[in-house]
Design a protein that fits this description.
This protein is of the alpha+beta class. It folds into four domains: about 120 residues, 3-Layer(aba) Sandwich (Rossmann fold); about 110 residues; about 60 residues, Carboxypeptidase-like, regulatory domain (Immunoglobulin-like); about 160 residues, no CATH class. Helix content is about 55%, strand content about 15%. The strands form six sheets. Strands 1, 11, 12, 13 and 14 form a five-stranded mixed β-sheet that branches. It has a four-stranded antiparallel β-sheet with strand order 4-3-6-7, with no helix packed on it. The chain has a three-stranded mixed β-sheet with strand order 5-2-8. The longest helix has about 35 residues. The radius of gyration is 32 Å and the shape is flat.
Amino acid sequence: MRGTILLFALVVVTASARAQGREDVWVVPIANDPESAAPIAEGTRRTLRDAGFVVPAAEALVERFETTISQPAPELSQRQLDEWAQRSTSAVRNLARADYDAARADLAITQALAESAAEELNREASRARQVLDTCLYLVRAFLETGDTPQAETQARECRRLVPRVDPSQFRHTPEVRELLERVDAAIAREPLGRLVVESEPSGCAVRLAGVASGQTPFTLVDLAQGTYGVQVECSPEDRGRVHRVEVRTGETRVHIDTRFESVLRSRPIVHAHGDDALDALKKLSRRMDVSIVALEPTARGGWTARLIERNDVGERVELGLRGEAHEFVVSLRDGDGGSRPARSSRSDDVERSPVWLATGLVLVAAGVGAYGGGIATHRLRAKAGDTYAELQATDPEFVQRQQDWLAYQVPTHVLAYVGGAFVAAGFAFALPEREGTPWWAWLSGGVGLLTAGLGAALVVTLPDCEQVAETQRACVNRGQGGQRSSFLVSTALPLLTVPFTYLFGRDAPVRVEGSGSATHATLSLRGTF
């Protein structure tokens, strides 16, 4: 029973993992005032969710946009800058008095601010050097308290935080300067990366971790591996959005479309503005591989919605006063005959991507191999059981034959359940994309339920085994029957995986919803079956 529960859990987890590769619907308003558009966008999301669409929340859109594309340039108030400078000065005084606890407390605050806003602090050359100096004060604190390994780690962090900037000449002890030189030499001996930054248009300023580094097209060689914030700025008045770039050995190439970034914003919600908003949203749809519901204000103070999929832009449909999108949902269903947006190029069945398909086939092959091993051990146990059942308790080989028979029990059950788990996971990865749940998925689920029921019924009919040493034949028959039950249950799991995958995938019309309070909790399925 525990094995069955674990396998059902695996089915749910695998189906969720598979769903990560499937499209969803983003609601993005086109507005100069995103705060006033936020309630309308939320009303549209609510209507679409009620109709069975998978619509990420506003906070989730911000996170995905900024993780995948870019983040806004950090902003610091004058109060924050003043506090940072005061903490840096205080840390130097505390180090001079050998008050290392107080120095570390000051430096922890300065370091946290530098980590979160390096692109702003490093914009001015003098302040970038001050950021590096402050970071090296923490290196000094570690050195003077005898923690050399931590000092070396911190020195590397300083170099990543402020790349290719020299520290002030007379602000650091000889030990700190010597350690920094050793770290620089060690980095130079490591495999380094090559960063290439291109932009549209070209000829724009490039900043690496806030430090002015050149103009596009820009190439930087011998760069230490790590994550850097890259900004491209075509206008000195506008801060470039921050692209988190992982630099590794070899060449890392980054292309930044500044026109695209000037139209799209991610704070306080993901939104677009300006005359090029629709073109930017089409590019966003292609880049993120999602359907986008663009909300646009009307001259009468209302709002409309239209569907954008890659290069296709639908007709505008009026929304309700609070963003209700019932007519829009009807237009979607009338337009493609389905219950959710679908790519116009998409057929009824679509093969999985090569990576997902290959992963699924490998898992299925591993599961079949485990099944084969389980069947082999099952037969070996049957043979050992027959030999054991024919012996008397007084026979010299009785104990040894009993142990031989018992030894095959655990491997047989484990291989059966592992085989079922791997095949179920492989099905979830390799099944073709599909609009809705196909008939053959329901048939597979029905056969799976029947198979699981047969396995459970077999357990009920097994003979009793009172004493292994006295009722050998009954115990052998019970053991073999229990193993056959395990094979039936583990076989049912891949069959049940098929409808579960289509029911609870990202583009499926059914979803699980839960709610609770101090006195009760509910779990429900909602959508169209």
